[in-house]
C-alpha cells in the first residue's frame, strides 16, 4: 500500500507534468499518463485547465473513462464539455452511471442537449433517466441511489448471509440492509456490522433497528445534508409518502452538498455564482460578474448623491472631502462582520425566532461599544493630524451613529430578508453597505454643516 | 420509524418550547424534555443560547449525558461550559469519549484547566489522553480513532466471521477490517461487504485489498479532508512512519473539517474567527472584532492621506469630493470578486504553479473589459448628471486604471501570499481594498488636477 503523503504530492506533480507534456504536444505520452489517474484526479485536472486545454485532454482521454470523470466534474465544467460532445457519445458516457449522478448530470444539461441525449437512449435507460429526473431538483429523491439491498423480517441471519454470498459484490458504500414487508414498506434497518456480530439462528426482526429515521423523498437536499452532519449518519434510507423504500443516500453524495452550502454564502457575498468556474473564458466571467458591479455602481452613485446634497459645505471645507470616506468604510466593515456571523448562524440553524431578538440586542450593544472605541480613537487622530478639535468631535459623533446603524442593520437585515424569502447572502452586503454609506455620509457632512460652517 | 420531515420541524419546535419553558422557569419540565433529545440536538440548543441560558440548561442536563453533548459542541461553546465545571466532573464527562473527541476536547482547554483535569484522571485514562495529545493538533493522528479491528492474512473468512461473532458489537462506523502482520504492519483492508460476499473457506489474503491507501499519522487534517472528499472514502487506516497501523479515520469526523475549511475563507474575509460563537457575550465579541476594525481604520486613514495630497484640487472643485468614492468602491468590488474566486480555487486545489500565470492573465483581461464597460457607463452618467464631459473623461480614465489594478492584484495577491505562507483569506481583502482605494483616488484626483484645474 502506498502512503498518501506521497500520493498527494504525486497527484500535484503528475498533474503538472501532464500539463507540461500537453504543451510540449507529447499527446501519446499524455494519453498514457491519463490512463493511470483515478477519475477524480482527471476531473481535478480538467477543472484546473482553461477551456482549450480541457478539450484537448478530453479528446486524449479513453472513452470508457468519460462517464466516471463526468460524475466527478462540477456543473459548469461538465456542461462545457458535454455541449461539445455528440449526443450518442454522451449516452455512452452516461450508460453505467449511478442513478443519482445520472440525474444530476442530465438536470444540468441545456434543454436541447438533454432532449437529444434522451432521444438517443434505449428505452430502458430513458425510463431510468426520466424516473430520476421526475424528482424535484435538490431533493432527497434526486441525490439518492436506487441500489438498495432489502431483506424480509422473518428470515434468519444465516439465510441472509447465504443470500448475500450469492452476489459477487454489494453495491458501492453499502453499510446497511433494509428490512421491508411484501408491499416494500420500510420496517427497519440492519447494519452490516450488526449482521456480522449476530448469531446465525436469530431472525432479522430480532436484531433490526426500527427506531432509525428515514428521509422522505421530497426533503430538500440541504436539510438532508444538515441531518447527516448533525446525526453523523453514513447512510440513510429514502421513502415515499406511503413509506415505501425507494432508495438510499450515502454520505459521500452529501459531502459535496455540505461543502457547496458552506461555500454558497462566501461566493454570493462577493457577488459570484456558486458554480462559477475559475477557468471559464474571459467573456463568460465578465458577463457573470457585471450584474454585481452594476448594482454596486448604483449604490456608489447613491452615496455620491448624498454627498452632493452637501456640495456647498464641501466647497467651503475641503478637509471634509478628505475625511468623508473614513466613517462609511468603518461602518461597512463592522456591519459586514455582524451580517456574516448572522448569515452563518442561520446556515447552521442556530438563529431562530426564539433567540433573534436577543441577537439583535447583542449586536446593537457591540455597535455601541465599537462606536465608543473608534470615535474616541478617530477623534484623537484628527485632533492631532488636523489640529481641529471641533472636526474631531464631528467625526466622532458620525462614527458613533454609523457603528450603531451597522450593528442594527447587520443583525436585522438577514432576519428580515429570510422572512421575505430573499437569500441574505446574495443581497445582504449590498443593502448593508448602502445603509452604512448613506448614514455615515449624512451623519458626518450633516453635523459638519451644522457645527463647522458659519 | 418516524419520518425526518417531522423530525426536523419537531427539533426546531422542541428547541423553541424548551427555550419557552426555561424562561417560564419550569425547570422540572425542561429537565424532562432534555432527556428526550439526542446529544446533537442538545448541543444545537446550547449553541443557540446566550451564555446565561447555557449554564442553566447545563445544570438541568443529566450528568451522564454531559460527555456526549461536549463531543458535539463547537470549541468556543465547549470551553465556556467546561471552564465553569469542577475538574472532577469534567473527568467524569470525558470518561467514555472516543480517543479523537477526547483529544480535540482536551486540546482546546486552557492550559490550567487541562492540567487539573489530567491530574484528576486515573493513570490509565491519563495515559490514553496524553497519547492522544501527543499527536500534533490538526493532524491525522489527532482526529483518528484507535478502535480498529485487525485480522491476520492467513486465516479463513469463516474464522474471521466466528471471531466477529464473539464481540457483542463492532466499534461505531466500522466498515472495514484491517489486515496486519505480527509486527502490526498494515498489509491490506477487507471491507465488511466484501467479507459478506466472500466464500467462508477462502483466506483473508485472497480477498483483501492491498492497493488502497493509508494515511500517515502526521498528515494535516485539511489534506485528509481533501482526500476523503476527492476519493469518496468512508474510512481510511492511519499508519505511523514504520507503516504500523495506529488507528482509523471515519468520514463523520472529516465532515466537520470539510465544513470548517469551507467556512474559513468567508469568516476570515469578514475579519472573524472561524470559531466565533454567535451568542458569545458582548465584551468578548467586541474585543475579537476590534483587531480587524483597527486594521481597516489604518487603511481608511491611508486613503484619506492620499486625498489629502489633493487638498487644493478638492477645495477648487467640490464635485470631485462628491465623486471621489465611486471609483475606489467599484475597484474594491471587482477586486474582491477575483480574490474570492482565486482563494476558493486554491482551497479546492485547482490553482497550481502550472496554471496561475494563465489565471492572472485571464483576470487582467476581465479587469480590462470591466474597465471598458464601467468607464463608458460612468462617463455617460456624469456627463448627463453634471453636464461636464471633461469630468466624465477623467472619471472614466480613473475607472479603467482601477479595474485593471483590481483584476491584477485580486489574482496575484493570494498567489504571492500563499508563497509567503500567509493565509490569503485573512489579510487578502484588506490589502486589496487598500490598493484599489489608493489607485482609485490617485487616478481620479491626479488626472483631475492635471486636466480640470487651471
From TrEMBL, chains A, B:
GO CC terms, sorted: plasma membrane
Keywords: CBS domain, Cell membrane, Magnesium, Membrane, Metal-binding, Transmembrane, Transmembrane helix, Transport
Compartment(s) where it occurs, according to its Swiss-Prot or TrEMBL record: Cell membrane; Membrane
Ranges where the CBS domain occurs: 144-206, 208-266
Keyword Ribosomal protein part of the UniProt annotation: no
TM region positions: 291-310, 316-343, 364-385, 391-413, 425-453
GO molecular function annotation: magnesium ion transmembrane transporter activity; metal ion binding
Entry annotated with the keyword Metal-binding: yes
Membrane topology: Multi-pass membrane protein
CDD domains: CBS_pair_Mg_transporter (cd04606)
Alphabetized NCBIfam families for the sequence: mgtE
Subunit note: Homodimer.
Stated family: Belongs to the SLC41A transporter family.
Described function: Acts as a magnesium transporter.
Name the UniProt record assigns to this protein: Magnesium transporter MgtE
Origin species: Agaribacter marinus
Amino acid at each position: 500500500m502506498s502512503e498518501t503523503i506521497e500520493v498527494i504530492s504525486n497527484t500535484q506533480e503528475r498533474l503538472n507534468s501532464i500539463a507540461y507534456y500537453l504543451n510540449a504536444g507529447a499527446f501519446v505520452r499524455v494519453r498514457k499518463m491519463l490512463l493511470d489517474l483515478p477519475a477524480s484526479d482527471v476531473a481535478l485536472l480538467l477543472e484546473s485547465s482553461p477551456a482549450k486545454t480541457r478539450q484537448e485532454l478530453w479528446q486524449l482521454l479513453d472513452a470508457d473513462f468519460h462517464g466516471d470523470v463526468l460524475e466527478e466534474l462540477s456543473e459548469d465544467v461538465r456542461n462545457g464539455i458535454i455541449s461539445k460532445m455528440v449526443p450518442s457519445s454522451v449516452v455512452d458516457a452516461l450508460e453505467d452511471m449511478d442513478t443519482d449522478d445520472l440525474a444530476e448530470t442530465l438536470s444540468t444539461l441545456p434543454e436541447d442537449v438533454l432532449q437529444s441525449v434522451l432521444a438517443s437512449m434505449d428505452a430502458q435507460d430513458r425510463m431510468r433517466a426520466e424516473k430520476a429526473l421526475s424528482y424535484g431538483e435538490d431533493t432527497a429523491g434526486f441525490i439518492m441511489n436506487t441500489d438498495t439491498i432489502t431483506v424480509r423480517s422473518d428470515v434468519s441471519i444465516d439465510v441472509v448471509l447465504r443470500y448475500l454470498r450469492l452476489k459477487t459484490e454489494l453495491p458501492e458504500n453499502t453499510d446497511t440492509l433494509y428490512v421491508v414487508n411484501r408491499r416494500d414498506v420500510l420496517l427497519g434497518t440492519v447494519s452490516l456490522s450488526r449482521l456480522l456480530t449476530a448469531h446465525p439462528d436469530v431472525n432479522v426482526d430480532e436484531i433490526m433497528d426500527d427506531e432509525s429515521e428515514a428521509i422522505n423523498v421530497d426533503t430538500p437536499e440541504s436539510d438532508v445534508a444538515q441531518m447527516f452532519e448533525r446525526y453523523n449518519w453514513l447512510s440513510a434510507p429514502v421513502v415515499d409518502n406511503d413509506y415505501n423504500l425507494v432508495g438510499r443516500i450515502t454520505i459521500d453524495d452529501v459531502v459535496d452538498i455540505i461543502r457547496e452550502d458552506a461555500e454558497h454564502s462566501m461566493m454570493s457575498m462577493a457577488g459570484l455564482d456558486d458554480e462559477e468556474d475559475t477557468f471559464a473564458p474571459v467573456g463568460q466571467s465578465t458577463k457573470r460578474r457585471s450584474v454585481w458591479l452594476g448594482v454596486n455602481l448604483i449604490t456608489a452613485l447613491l452615496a455620491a448623491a448624498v454627498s452632493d446634497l452637501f456640495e456647498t459645505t464641501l466647497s467651503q471645507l475641503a478637509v471634509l472631502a478628505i475625511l468623508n470616506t473614513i466613517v462609511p468604510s468603518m461602518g461597512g466593515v463592522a456591519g459586514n462582520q455582524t451580517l456574516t456571523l448572522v448569515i452563518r448562524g442561520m446556515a447552521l440553524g442556530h438563529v431562530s425566532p426564539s433567540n433573534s431578538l436577543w441577537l439583535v440586542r447583542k449586536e446593537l450593544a457591540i455597535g455601541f461599544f465599537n462606536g465608543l472605541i473608534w470615535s474616541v480613537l478617530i477623534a484623537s487622530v484628527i485632533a492631532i493630524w488636523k489640529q481641529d478639535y471641533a472636526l474631531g468631535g464631528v467625526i466622532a459623533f458620525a462614527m458613533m451613529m454609523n457603528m450603531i446603524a451597522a450593528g442594527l442593520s447587520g443583525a436585522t437585515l438577514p432576519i428580515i430578508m429570510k422572512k421575505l424569502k430573499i437569500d441574505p447572502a446574495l443581497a445582504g452586503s449590498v443593502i448593508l453597505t448602502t445603509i452604512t454609506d448613506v448614514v455615515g455620509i449624512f451623519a458626518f457632512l450633516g453635523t459638519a454643516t451644522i457645527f463647522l460652517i458659519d
